[in-house]
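[Meeting: bench + compute handoff]

Bench side (C.D.) handed over the final construct sequence. Compute side (W.E.) agreed to return the predicted structure before the next meeting so the bench team could plan truncations. Sequence as handed over:
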Amino acid sequence: MQKGKTFIISGPSGVGKSTVLKSLLERRKNVYFSVSATTRAPRDGETDGVHYHFLDVDTFRSWIARDEFLEYAEYVGNFYGTPKKFVDAAMEEGKDVILDIEVQGAIQVCSKRPDTVRIFIAPPSWEELERRLTERGTDDPDKVQKRLLRAKVEFQTAHTYDYFVINDTVENAVNELDAIMTAEHCKPQERMEIISQQ
């Protein structure tokens, strides 16, 4: 059975990653969307193993000590990380794995797994990103500006990614992601094994 690949999806807040990934997962069935572990308390309606793997701080630290994360970070007093075991199990089942993580996490993952495919999702313009952040209505103008400043920092790493997808429309972005994932499985090193088994 063909082993799955790991794909990192990064991009600035407000670029529409969640919407694009939801549509991609409806189209590609043999995909595991990685669920992060966190030490923060579950919010109303959140289910362990679905939204996050909820761990206490001691357990999280013991996983760090045993190198059980592909990446982890501390954010606003809580830990967040990508557990290796769930990613590896899905890949062994032949599923592709999608990690929705920011650029610092991507660097950590790729230092451990250089064959990880990195895809950066960008807005069609700065004006459009600002419009999307503003129309979301979840942040005040000051926070929108902070998110835009952070986006500029993230864009400085975009050239290190393998692919660059512009989310002008959800359909176009999903088509490009779908094509990238298909193309990654058409590389000779993966396909030649079929011939060598004859």
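W.E. noted at the follow-up: The mean pLDDT is 92. C.D. will use this when planning the next construct.
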